[in-house]
Structures are given as structure tokens and as C-alpha cells.
Amino acid sequence: MQTLTTLNLGGNGIGDVGAQHLADGLRNNTTLTELDLQWNQLGNIGTQHLANALRTNTTLTTLNFAINETRAVGAQHIADLLRTNTVINILILIYSMCLSVLFHTGTYHINSI
């Protein structure tokens, strides 16, 4: 039986509503290790849905959140996620509007930002 370990949704423009549906699917996922959500027009609300869903995830190690529209509020959701989920160790935020806010939150268990 094959299981999905990598999901690349980059450039699909899923937005906040799509993020909510994705979060519903991720909430109980136990196989995904890499999730690429770059360039998806994700704002603060979509980020909140995803962060809440991934808070207790024990398999996802890499999250690509580059080139999204998340700002300070969304960055706080990501920071809160990283305080409780220590499995994610690679977070990609290239050209992200929330990078500087997240960097100053003290979330430093990440191997690569």
C-alpha cells in the first residue's frame, strides 16, 4: 500500500477558503512529511486554519509557506504552531510578508527558515 508523504500545492491560489478545506484534511493525517503551499494567496485566516490543524501533527517536517500574503497576525499563528509542534524543522518563508515578525518571536527550534 502506498501512502502520500509529499504534497505540492504550490501556485494553485487556494486562498483562505481552500486553506480551511486543506486544514480539515490535514488534521488527522499521519503520513505527510512535506507540504508545499508556496504562492497560494494565503492570508491570516488561512494561516490560522492551517496552524490549528498542524498543531498536533507528528509527521510533517517541512513546510513551504513562501510567497504568501500572511502578515503579522498570521505570523503569530505560525509562531504559536511552532511552539507546540517541534517536529517541523524546515520552514520556507522566502518572499513572505511575515518573515521578520516570525523571526523575532523566539521560535528557534527550526533548523532552516
From TrEMBL:
InterPro entries: Leu-rich_rpt, LRR-containing, LRR_dom_sf
Entry keyword Transmembrane helix: yes
Transmembrane portions of the chain: 87-110
Membrane is among the record's keywords: yes
Keywords of the record: Membrane, Transmembrane, Transmembrane helix
Full protein name: Uncharacterized protein
